[in-house]
Structures
1.
Amino acid sequence: MNQLRVGIVGMGIMGSSVGRVLARDARVQLVAATSLSLEKMAPICDELGIARRYLDYAEMFARESLDAVCVATPDQHHYAVVMAALNAGRHVLVEKPMTTDVNEAAEIVRRVRETGLKLQVSYNHRWLAPYNATWKMIREGKIGQPLMGYARKSNPILVPTEMLPWSGGSSPAWFLSGHDIDLMTWWFDADPVEAHGYGIKKVLAARGIDTYDMIQAQVKFSNGAFATFETCWIYPNSHPALPDSYMEVVGEAGQIVMDRKAEAIEMASAERFAWPRSLLNFQVFDKWVGAFPSCVESFIDAILEDRPPYVTAYDGWRATAALDAIHRSVASGQVEKIAAPPIAH
């Protein structure tokens, strides 16, 4: 079997994680990578055996014969890389959100349709068993038609102040609620049509980070269902969850609740009490397991099996459209409408 030749754009936390999964996949050859610093990317590239290293993704696309590209740049910098990859004839795996601009998202959807290439957005929570089981139960009619949803996903303040040097270009909703919005649109099987939200800039702004401390919003969908999305980036660092995560769906004949903040493990040490994460991306002996590696491997499956990815560009548009409207509403104080989808679905 010929190996798929893959390049990675962005070798930070997510790009390195993607690389570690693909490096153990016999169907893949990691050919090249780009980052803003050759020096900083050297250790991870050495670990993964990536010899071809670039500062400019356009140069990598021009010089390397690639089948697919993994885009793991900060949230607000996905669009240009994704479009360049599609225009160069490469399949694309892009970190969530697909883009932070609804018009850009629509352009990506249309370009994917025009090229026939595969694009998967890494809303990897679809591969978490409880969320996938929820989708199956809803499809089987266990709770009737879903009518209302609630989702909370929040992080301690160390995430925007220490983990993410680019947090000022994003928000807790773009970084966290995107997962919940993707899941809700998947479960509802409907497009978002309007949003009304509130947000506060105070604590992080005082630290020189121009983004929201917290956002709460309600989104209405094309089938009449609605959902509330709540997110916060300023929990105290003593909080045991990373993140605190809770979801609920109420249907005409039942209810489903998913509370996964603890992930089945509690740990107490002399320093703190914590709920360590193990379900999303965890190293078991010499392999990475969980929803994240399953998502990455599924992208390779989609290319080799010539099937649609399980999170398509259209799904990426749905989440971006809702998030774009939420942020517009937070700024305007009004209910903000969402434009019609870029293609028939």
2.
Amino acid sequence: MDIEVFLGRAAQIEADAIVITLFEGNKSSVKHISDIDNILDNTIQRLIEKGEVKGKLNEITMIHSLGRLAAPHVVLLGLGKEPELSSEKVRGAMAEACRFLRQKGCAVIATTSMGKAVAGLDINTFAEAVVEGALLGLYLFRTHITRAAEYGEVKKLIMITNSESELVALEEGSTRGSIMAEATSRARNMVNEPANYMTPAIMAQVAGGLGAGVEVNVFEEEKIKKLGMGGLMGVARGSREKPRFIVLNYTGKSGNEIDVALVGKGITFDSGGISIKPSDKMSEMKGDMAGGAAVIAAMDAIARLRPAINVLAAIPATENLPDGNAIKPGDVITAMGGKTIEIISTDAEGRLILADALNYVREAGAKRIIDVATLTGACHIALGDVCSGAFGNNQVLIDNVIASGKDAGELIWQMPMYEQYKEQNKSDVADIKNSGGRYGGAITAAQFLAEFVGEIPWVHLDIAGTFLSDKEKGYLTKGATGVPVRTLINLVLHLAK
């Protein structure tokens, strides 16, 4: 979908519909589109005064202009109470309005800027939220569907302002919103792909197709073995697909210093291995590479936004399948760096490949590390699908990650990392075992990862409950959510400052 910023009167814009945002209980909030309402014989004001339009959050009312405007339809979109407005509510409301208008056959949608500031949101932030909401709310994954879509596509969104002084801010906000949404959609596409269309090799190809500004290196089996990545090689033994270790570099300032490393789990299909999962919903395990997809997509957006910071990314990619050659419960493997691991469950495979990746970025000299993984069902049980779990060893970095998520509308909750949980990971035959048992499973998994980080400031995001949505709501569509792409981008932009 194209995004355009237009300087002029909303009444003159040629579009299929104009979206006008209103606040709940504020009868004067229609002032910013008084020229349109005058042409419509004050229809909007009368609807508000009669209580037929209340401005409640996500309330949608369509008015037919009957030829009095260039646009045949005007849609009144409620943003809720003005003091409670947030970027997240703007995103969600705009997504709902755009989906509504797609069903009405609208291909070009226009909306107004509402002035220099909207309930504490500057024009730049408001524009970014509008564009993100529209693009993410209209997202569809139809790659493998041959029948025609029920509705046509929305081809253009026009942001209207009658103030020349707002143009730059609207353009900047719209551009950033587009980059954020496009990156999120890239991750959604990767996660939504069937596992036979998103193998480790194809995942590496996607990374290799990123735009200018990202240096891509893909390590194949021989190099992975040479580096001593026993975790990645161990998990890959059960699959006929060869593993890949994907390394991405973004250099935004001079010097070789790695300011932050992003690590993403890339299990392109997880059957559980020898410790095989129940068949119910196993198809969702094509998305066990959502962490890796998020990191790849975020790196592309970071390169487009060009912050003054150096970022390294590492994505270990493989399938986890049962086979006569697969690792077995009771086996001992050696991760990169020499630490030995007793295999208790082959379904606790994500932490094995992340152990190698974390060790790789640590040895590369990363000053901070963020890893993202659909790591544990335990985190999904603890937090549901509302927020991701954050675990770490540095409170300042944890706070920055949570704040970056809040700005993106991707909620994150900090989980405990008490030393006592380490006891559950102790092994009698190796340095550590890969499962601490059922209780506190998300925490013991994070404690396992901590063993491969050392003292480097580190945060682990468990997105097992948030990487998928089972329904359409706000700017989320059914299927992959793209969490936490925008959190990672926000964090890197914040650290660059």
